[in-house]
Amino acid sequence: MRLGPAEHHEIEMTVNGTPRSAPAPARRLLSDFLRHDLGLTGTHVGCEHGVCGCCTVLLDGEPVRSCLMFAVTAAGHSITTVEGLAGAGGALSPVQRAFQECHGLQCGFCTPGFLCTVTALLRDNPRPTDDEVLEGVSGNLCRCTGYQNIVKSVRRAAELLAEEPT
Amino acid sequence: MTTSLFGEPIERREDPRLLTGGGRFLDDLGRDALAAAFVRSPHAHARILDIDLSAAVDVEGLVAIYTWEDLPGGVGDPLPLLIPHPAMTHGRTGLPLARDVVRHVGEPIVMVVARDRYLAEDAAELIRVDYEPLPPVVGIENAAAAERLVHEDVPGNVGAHLVQEVGAAPAAIEAAPHVLEFRLDIERSASTPLEGRGVYARWDAADESLRVYSSTQTSTSVRMAVAARLGLPPGKVEVIAPDVGGGFGVKIVHPWPEEVLVPWAARLLDREIKWTEDRREHFVASAHERGQVQFVRVGFDDEGRLLGLDVRILHDHGAYTPYGIIVPIITSTQLLGPYKPGAYRVEFTSLYTNTVIVTPYRGAGRPQGVFCMERTMDRIARHLGRDRAQVRAANFIQPEEFPYDQGLTFQDGRPLIYDSGDYPEMLRKTLALIGWDSFAELREAARSRGRRIGIGLGCYVEGTGVGPYEGGHVEVDTAGRVHVSTGLTSQGQGHQTVFAQIVAAELGVPIEDVYVTTGDTRRFGYAVGTFASRAAVMSGNAVALAARKVRDKALRIAGDALEADPGDLQITDGTVHVKGDATAAIPLRTVAVLANPLRYAFDAEAQRATQFAAPADPAAPPVAPGDEPGLEGRDYYSPVRSTFAAGMHAAVVETDPDTAEIRILRYAVVHDCGRMINPRIVEGQIHGGVAQGIGGALYERMAYDPAGQLLNASFMDFLMPYATEIPRIETDHLETPSPLNPLGIKGAGEAGVIPVSAVLAAAIEDAEGIRVDAMPISPDDLFHLRLRAGTDPSLRL
Known about the structure:
The structure holds 2 protein chains of 2 kinds.
Chain A: E1 8-15, E2 18-25, H1 30-37, E3 56-59, E4 62-65, E5 78-80, H2 94-101, H3 111-124, H4 130-136, H5 148-163
Parallel strand pairs in A: 1-5
Antiparallel strand pairs in A: 1-2, 3-4, 3-5
Helix pairs in contact in A: 2-5
Chain B: H1 15-19, E1 34-40, E2 46-52, E3 62-66, E4 101-102, E5 108-114, H2 117-126, E6 128-133, H3 140-145, E7 158-166, H4 169-175, E8 178-186, E9 198-204, E10 209-214, H5 219-230, E11 237-240, H6 257-269, E12 273-276, H7 279-285, E13 292-300, E14 306-316, H8 326-334, E15 343-351, H9 366-384, H10 388-395, E16 404-409, E17 415-418, H11 423-434, H12 439-448, E18 452-464, E19 470-476, E20 482-486, H13 495-507, E21 514-518, H14 535-562, E22 569-572, E23 575-578, E24 581-587, H15 588-594, E25 632-637, E26 643-655, E27 662-672, H16 679-699, E28 729-733, H17 756-768, E29 774-775, H18 779-791
Parallel strand pairs in B: 1-12, 8-29, 10-11, 14-15, 20-21, 27-28
Antiparallel strand pairs in B: 1-5, 2-4, 2-6, 3-5, 7-15, 8-13, 9-10, 9-12, 13-14, 16-17, 18-26, 19-20, 19-25, 22-23, 23-24, 26-27
Helix pairs in contact in B: 5-6, 8-9, 9-10, 9-17, 13-14, 16-17
């Protein structure tokens, strides 16, 4: 049976720790599903071809481009978006705090993608070298900051994470 | 004391929202709105023979399809020529939807409205447009040769021609002991914000009013344009710039076709409609900049002092001229930089091509002008065998020569008079920061190890804060909150922070109590927009002046309440008190209550202002003649002319002898934007500008083929720099306050980008010993330049 664009699937996934579900066609991108079907507009879309990294979310903890994945593909998986990065009571995470402290954002459009990328980066490598920091953020475009303060934010986030009680 | 004052590098107040997904960008709004999509021309130049909609009409979820034929008068008229100029004899603008002829790939022809964007694009794909392709004009020299025309009624493809002259440059050059003549080329790049354009409109049929959200750099002017096009009173149109994901110039153009069509269709259909630009659309349907060819003739003396400079510029303005000739005007005037040119003649010809329109991109013609002047300085130094920095210093305007009149007319129609600066000191700082004097040894040491390194220097002056005006409104409410609004928009510059700093400092309140709104015509209807590094200068001064009015009024009212002379009062931390006596005090929130004589008490605090509560002069009206109720103030700042910021950059690069890769080893910036409101934000602006400059110098270009197809209209192929391409930027500052405005500030937004191509060209030239006359330069370009220089000695230094 051929499914036309109008055929909707009930797509279920865990988003920021909460089970979510919405009907959407098979061709709906994960980015559009999060933004328009679930109303989580913090994930941004900058190019729709996987280069800019604005739409980066964590799929089962790993950074992915949500514009390069269908929502149906992510069904049954666990997604973390920028809305899910802050701690209990909305306290900014160490990565978020570092970006504020170091002026690591200007217009804020690319920021959610950087925050998701850096959150995973520092989880896997809590004490990255300068080269590892650069490499770690080298898949995300920013047109405002010139990156200097983003790199600084990542280093600062590593410090803040190290100070966190374990 | 919690008051954060002017000049402190405080953290930004907009960040917590943006860091948690709480931003409100255009596509984050209107979740239930219908979506618009456009059929755009695949040809650079073609006649439209037929549009067949039949296959599209059955698409599920389709709501409407519009071609030019469907547009009523006003809506379907040519888009406005925003900045007319007497020299623009042949200005031409496009239609919101093309009628007979398309003149660039990407020009909109059909608008589709459907339930969502996927379905709108389904329908758009099924619309068949029959074209008769016409020969396109691509490239500046083809445009100048005019064997083909972009517009049948524009002879020679010339939209504008302008000459400005100070003294007799040709004669001065003829008489000069040394003369050089050469050509320079700069290719196209573009603003490329990560959020494209977008419009969301909703019509309130009962109220006959329209609300439009647009990702724009000017909400007030979009409002006037939409109201005019749709025949609505401006009072029935609200335009709001929500969070804007970068602008860099491209979003100052207005009204875009989509900004007219989406509100029009929303009203016609009585449905909410949204259009969000996708990345390909942004490449082919918004705007580019930079493309110029320059022919330079310069005469100078033995010290390298300019005696006469004659520059002819061919400027590519694309298919239409909605923004006029601001870019080449800026190139031709700001080319002079911090120098006294002797006699100067500049002539530009602004040409039509079958490519995307050209409108200001951060720097707005200055990068090209600075490239021209700085390449000229380097040529002179090489010719005379003198130090490049010394030749520049020999031509500087001196600190005691301000105000300095360059004798030209600037982009605001006002005389090009520099207000203040200290260029010799700035050069001293720059040379010290980069280690200029000891670099020759480093270069030779590197060379002996088979490495090629070079150093470059570039200086610029930037007219910032152009008029005509901006306004500010400050209101203290009865809870002590201070509401600040200004009409210009924000695209990431931190206005909610810096304007709050200014008002907190002027008023004497904690910054936590200050709330700033920008770009919302509901709050402030009169404004110009955010461009030309003007927001801090214009709205910064306007909100300061408005805050001073509020302060004066607060002191007057508090003086009555405390039975004190207002001159003996001051406001600290939100409380008015007698200087040196903390006990005689009244909070601003209470002053706000007293400022508004009430009949009805809405809460306990408000009872103080009711008729039987306060002792008042029974012979005087409760609101004195000339006074107004409320603790608020509004004021405007309108400068007589622009204020001139300046900067100098220096860089060290290394070029790979085999692969011709170009690596920036060091990048140093000394910058003077007068008094800094927030040094952290100024530095951020500089970093971002330099990164865009590096993109434009080494990576970014618009690759049009001869048929007018943009071959690299994606982020896969248009190479914007990642973190790995941008070096650490070393900065130092100089503060020469502007005497023109109350706060002494100058603009900083565009500064970083301006001299980068000039600086890197100079550094690469220095490393390679080969002339660099064209930018951008890729490893491939450098490789071929080396091959040519191998057989052509004139290319070698």
